[in-house]
Amino acid sequence: MHSVVFVGTMDADAAPAVSDLFARFDASDLPHLAGVRKRQMYTYHDLHINVVDFGREPDDAQIEVLKTDPRVVTHQQKLNALVAPLRPDSWRGAADSAATPFYLWQQRGWKDTAAGSTHSTIVVNRMDQSARPEVAALFAGLDATDFPYRMGTHRRQLFTHHGVYFHIQDFPEQNGKAVIAEAWKEKDPRFIEICRELDPHMTVYDPGTWRSTADQIATRFYHWEAAA
């Protein structure tokens, strides 16, 4: 699976309209033509996070569909009325809403399918992009141990977009927030250590409303998967 994460800003009240818009889009043949296997959308404060999983990295023909099919153009125009770019001054099109991936780990032999699909849990913080190499190295060290297997993580991906950091973990159940809370409760030294090492690189997205680590987790409001 190849993931692309699109980020924008959205009024929370717009979530039903955005869900309806994508439900119609995903019911068409366009996701199949573009190679899309799965879509999950989340809200976090003023953010709209659209996680799109492709069966593999899109080829030129699939990218052309996404760029030129009139239905895609119409869909994007309607979406633009509901979701705004994070940086409107530098936005030229949907590609400018794509976050930059900088780390990927997944369990050996793992394959996300409709029959055994995972649920993505997203932790959101702020991070300067210059910290990407060090943050990636910290997670590479952790993921070289048995810790992600013990935690139940099937895949971990890290992205940044205009100073916002997205830590996406795929779990077999829709209880990622509880799994993360349990990791804090168990106080595995490796988990405590990486949290300590990440601290200098991270700040919470909204200090005025932050109370605990649970406040760093985005809320999923839409989920679609292609038929097996």
TrEMBL record:
<dbReference type="Pfam" id="PF04673">
    <property type="entry name" value="Cyclase_polyket"/>
</dbReference>
<protein>
    <submittedName>
        <fullName>Polyketide synthesis cyclase</fullName>
    </submittedName>
</protein>
<dbReference type="InterPro" id="IPR038474">
    <property type="entry name" value="Polyketide_synth_cyclase_sf"/>
</dbReference>
<dbReference type="InterPro" id="IPR006765">
    <property type="entry name" value="Polyketide_synth_cyclase"/>
</dbReference>
<dbReference type="InterPro" id="IPR011008">
    <property type="entry name" value="Dimeric_a/b-barrel"/>
</dbReference>
<dbReference type="GO" id="GO:0030639">
    <property type="term" value="P:polyketide biosynthetic process"/>
</dbReference>
